[in-house]
Design a protein that fits this description.
Oligomer: single chain
Number of strands: 12
Structural class: alpha+beta
Distance between the termini: 81 Å
């Protein structure tokens, strides 16, 4: 009987000791996880960081989700209160970069690749412009020729012409010929093939308290291709399609971190809950919106 009591006591002691050890081990593990989470969520104010560090910003094709397949529209290099913009949009069949692509490259390799694609894309935009005018010239001439051929067979009042009058067709043909000649003789393509560098500014919009930033937007001055049919200035034909504006940029309401392959990215989310930018960081960095009390000179604050 005494042996049974001793045996039971030993078993109970072992269970209690095991339970205590497990509880202590679990507690230590939880503390370690909390430390890791705390370390990972170390916050860094976005504009404050840009003002002190050369930073590559990936301006994304806006979407509700982000993956290795997410395409990059522009690569922006922030340095010394300026932004250099590389146009990575391209046309339908152009090569492009994704977050998965850049995650495997160093920052230096990313910029070299962006330079290459930017130059190719500008040349593609130019070629597409020239081809557009040539194709429209051919179509306009064909419509005019068909109209004139019908006039030989039918009375003038019984014959029509598509897309305007015969006089408008003749004017468009003359204008297209001048435009094509101006574009083909332009020596501006080399200059526009260089990525543009300009200043940037940041605007903070606060919440109702006026003490917290609810939305942060960045605008930069850049020469960005804008494909809209415009009247050509024949003395400077490409300038219409490569306007220098201050309206380029993006806005964010929050950041979150995500891993793609071996790289960690901070993703900026806009008002429409779309992922709009990505910045590669170390695993210990999480960007936050800037404090309205910031002393940075290129920041303005709008209080609600």
């Amino acid at each position: 009987m005494n042996r049974k009591i001793v045996l039971i006591s030993l078993l109970l002691s072992g269970c209690i000791l095991t339970a205590c050890t497990h509880t202590k081990s679990q507690s230590n593990q939880e503390e370690k996880q909390i430390e890791q989470v705390s370390s990972k969520s170390k916050s860094t104010e976005f504009a404050e960081y840009l003002s002190k560090n050369e930073t590559i910003i990936y301006d994304l094709e806006n979407s509700k989700s982000t993956s290795k397949e997410t395409r990059i529209q522009f690569l922006l290099v922030a340095k010394n209160d300026t932004i250099t913009a590389y146009d990575l949009r391209g046309s339908k069949n152009s090569k492009y970069l994704t977050l998965g692509d850049v995650s495997k490259l160093s920052d230096k390799e990313v910029i070299e690749k962006a330079k290459e694609l930017h130059k190719q894309n500008i040349k593609t935009y130019y070629d597409n412009l020239v081809n557009y005018y040539k194709e429209d010239l051919e179509l306009t001439q064909k419509e005019l020729d068909e109209y004139k051929a019908k006039l030989d067979k039918y009375p003038e009042g019984a014959v029509g012409i598509a897309n305007g009058s015969a006089e408008e067709h003749e004017q468009r043909i003359e204008r297209h010929k001048k435009t094509i000649q101006a574009l083909e003789n332009s020596n501006e393509l080399t200059e526009f093939s260089k990525p543009s560098t300009g200043s940037y500014s940041i605007n903070l919009k606060t919440d109702g308290s006026g003490n917290q930033t609810a939305y942060e937007s960045l605008k930069y001055t850049g020469t960005i291709f804008d494909k809209k049919n415009k009247k050509i200035d024949f003395s400077n034909p490409l300038k219409n399609y490569f306007p220098t504006t201050e309206d380029n940029g993006f806005g964010v309401s929050l950041f979150y971190a995500t891993d793609i392959y071996d790289s960690t990215f901070n993703i900026g989310v806009n008002k429409d809950h779309e992922n709009t930018i990505a910045i590669r960081t170390n695993k210990n960095t999480l960007y936050t919106l800037d404090n309205p009390k910031t002393n940075l000179k290129n920041i303005t604050v709008d209080k609600k």
